[in-house]
Amino acid sequence: MSDLQEYIAKRKKSDPEFEKDYEIGYQNFKIGVILRQMRKDSGITQEELAAKLKTKKSVISRIENHAEDIRLSTLNKYAETLGKTLIIQFVNSNQ
């Protein structure tokens, strides 16, 4: 286990609020990574995607790098533009 992983594990044990915020932040990070990978797999640049969505490249960059508080309508448009379908699934948090 790396020093960072050890630190995170210790903080999670001693600080429930840190654990909650860490998990939320990590999920947001993963969404951004998935969106970026979908775009790259589609073979288009941020500029090209921005033009298709009638927005600016900086907006696409912000979505891919800071996916927190992204609207479902924005996620849906992003997915549709890349030829994908957005599916939302709820699972038990105990699993």
Can you offer a commentary on this structure?
The chain has 95 residues and is an all-alpha fold. The chain has one domain: lambda repressor-like DNA-binding domains (434 Repressor (Amino-terminal Domain), Orthogonal Bundle). 67% of the residues lie in helices and 0% in strands. The protein contains 5 helices and no strands.
Query: Distance N terminus to C terminus?
Result: 23 Å
CATH topology-level name: 434 Repressor (Amino-terminal Domain)
Q: Let me know the number of strands.
A: 0
Give the topology string: H per helix, E per strand. Answer: HHHHH
Overall SS class: mainly alpha
CATH superfamily, by name, is: lambda repressor-like DNA-binding domains
CATH class: Mainly Alpha
Share of β-strand residues: under 5%
The overall average pLDDT, rounded, is: 90
What are the segments in which pLDDT stays under 50 over at least 5 consecutive residues?
Answer: none
Shape verdict = elongated
Sheet with the most strands, sense and barrel status: none
Helix content: 55-70%
Instruction: Give the tally of structural domains.
Output: 1
What's the architecture, going by CATH? Orthogonal Bundle
Summarize the structure in short.
The chain is mainly alpha-helical and 95 residues long. The protein has five helices and no strands.
Question: How is this fold's topology laid out?
Answer:
Layout: H1 3-14, H2 16-41, H3 46-52, H4 57-65, H5 72-81
Helix pairs in contact: 1-2, 3-4
